[in-house]
Amino acid sequence: MNTAHDPFPLLTPRERDVMDYIALGKPNKIIAAELGVSQRTIEAHRARIFQKMRVRNAVELAHRLLSQRHYG
Questions:
Q1: Angle at 7 between CA 6 and CA 10, to 5 degrees
Q2: CATH class of the domain at 11-68
Q3: Which of 4, 43, 49, 55 has a beta carbon 3.0–4.6 Å from 60's, enabling a disulfide?
Q4: How distant is the alpha carbon of residue 25 from its chain centre?
């Protein structure tokens, strides 16, 4: 699949894990606790996910995931 149109393959496995939590509306603090990492680490993952997926917030991310049928 062409990553120019589908940035999903650019995500690391950990970023995909974090993305699932974000799409479910989980706050960074909860994601960090459940994955056993610092909140700052989740913030960094979140920023990279938003950049790679070309979205500005969690709502746009969830919409993009649903529209690309990678989620669910």
A1: 135
A2: mainly alpha
A3: 55
A4: 11
